[in-house]
Fold:
Amino acid sequence: MRRLKKVAIAAALALSTSMATLPAFAETLTFVSWMKGEPGYGDWWNEVIQKFESEHPDVKVEMTKVARSEYADTMFTMFAGGTPPDIVHLAAFEYQSFANEGWLEDLGPYIKKSGMNLDGWAGQSTCEWKGTTNCIMLLYTAYILAYNEKLLKDAGIEAVPTDWNSLLAAAKAATRDTDGDGVTDVYGLGVDSSGGSNMMHDMLHFVLDAGGNWTENGKPAFNSPGVIEGLRRFKEIYTEGLTPKDAAAGDMRQLLVEGRIAMRLDGPWIWNVMKKADPAVRDNLKLAESPLNPPVGGTSNVIGMPSDISDEKKALVWDFIQVATSKDMQQRFATLGSSPAPMPGLDYSAEIAASPYFELFAKANDKASAAGIDRLPKGLELEFNEVTKLVFREVQRMLIDNLSPEEAAANIQTAVERIAG
Amino acid sequence: MIDFSSPKHRSKFGYMLLAPAVILMALIIIYPILLSVDISLQDVRIARVGGTQAPWTTKNYDWLINSEEFWNSIWVTARMVFFVGGTSLVIGLATALLVNQKFKGRALARLFVALPWAVPEVVATVIWAWMLDSSFGVINWLLLKAGFISEAIQFGSNATAAFFAVCFVMIWKGYPLVSIMLLAGLQSIPAEQYQAAKVDGASVWQRFFYVTLPNLAPVIGVTMVMTTLWVFRDFSIIYVLTQGGPIGATTTLSMLTFEQAFSFFRMGQGAAVGVVTMIICAIISRALVGRFAKSVH
Structure:
């Protein structure tokens, strides 16, 4: 019995000692993001969390990954079920639906109280919704041209395309059946034709270059001459077999690093994808300015907080946002993400020296920003997903029924006007 | 003190034992149904559980009746149920009859028949999506090499090809369950019935039509109900392969529900489609179960 008592006391002591060595967190902030684990941006989030936790030793940030493809549904379910994450990370084209429901806190008073200066903060105007500031913009980016130098040279293209005509000519020359089995092995240009926002962005290159845009003064302009010309170019690339058909943007990136696609217009994130290519292909993969003018650009993702968490948690989340938007973390954003941060006035000389294409990304950003480009159609923010679907449906109808771009544009305009009211 | 062993209170004891299960069923089945009906009667883009209740309206059902997408999805679902259900039944019955015979390697054959059913649906569909890829898929390559086609089939942008591609993957994934259930049904048929039929001089086909099929009818009924409901509610195969396209050629009722509620954030309309789907499923289940149950007697 005495022996049993000793064992019990020893066990209790061991348990209490081990409990004392564990960190006792007074609060946990939940944070859901699709970027967890991503090279570059995921690493930056880790540093932000680390810094915040070092400044708040009694608070733990619990970061969970949700895939981008199911992100909006998951966040929507969490908010609708009354259990939103404490730190809200959303794509710039989807936050409006959440803000419209009053689910996001107005950050205006917090910004004012803390004295945060958002003058010149890239893309911040997108975070204004119905007179309130619902988020802080985390990334504004512009598209560039990724190309396989060897594939272009093999096709007799020595110079990188600089406009639509040279891009089309290069795409035609580079599309080839290399082994003579009757099946195309290399495609000239990777254009998303699988539907979704990436297909809209890919088509927007042609529309912008033709002088159009999806909306004008907040009203649908799908039947404008610029959009019609953009549809004509998309149809030409698709029907002439210059792009793999019905493939998504992710597939295109993979095909590019496998040496199956000669060119692809994409965001700066493609640089991180290209780095993973097989060395034999990687040496031939290069980046250049988009031959289409102005380049597609736009807001990417935002950070905010839910309106119905406790005031104590709101104060902590605001501290987290301040860490993420602090000068040193913005500088780290540029370093780790290999792309310019939204904060103005940062010194990028170290990033330019370290990354061969950083200057290119910054230049593309400036060009798109100066032209006032945002890939999210102004005035159709709430209906963006539905508009995307309608555009996809009518573009498919154009391709399947061989409709003219004018007819397809008129169909899109009618359908969008019906839902936009 | 109630004496539950007395004939007067014996039934109460039964109800008491059933109560936990019934309450649990009500919580996990009936509550979501009521919630869906409630949301379908509200003009809301995004409904929030426990949030402010919008006034009831029939606006979502008005949209449903006048919506081209809804009637298209009814038509697509009906065609898919008919084609997938019918083909799965034929293949399932044929494979069940085959593996019910005694032959060398029967265990291996049974394993192969059941294999597609055991593979996780999303994993299998992603593999098929790559195989059916319009530009680099092995199916197109094989068909081109064999000379069956002169140019690649656009499974993603040809309405007919997309529909049959979805049906094909559904059949591949669904027939093993039919086969397993029918095999269980075949094994429960008394051997005496076949012996008696043989003694009476019945041919193979006569034994099949007058002994096997009548005995299998209840199992076929249950299997058809399960297959029909599976096709009605299946989402992942269509979502991964075609996302309901092209031009709505594979947009079933479940796809439309998801699209309205989670892609377009029109939860009221999505719930209305869901409620109508549930009613249709209930009617079909009742009709099929009733019909096949009667056929046993």
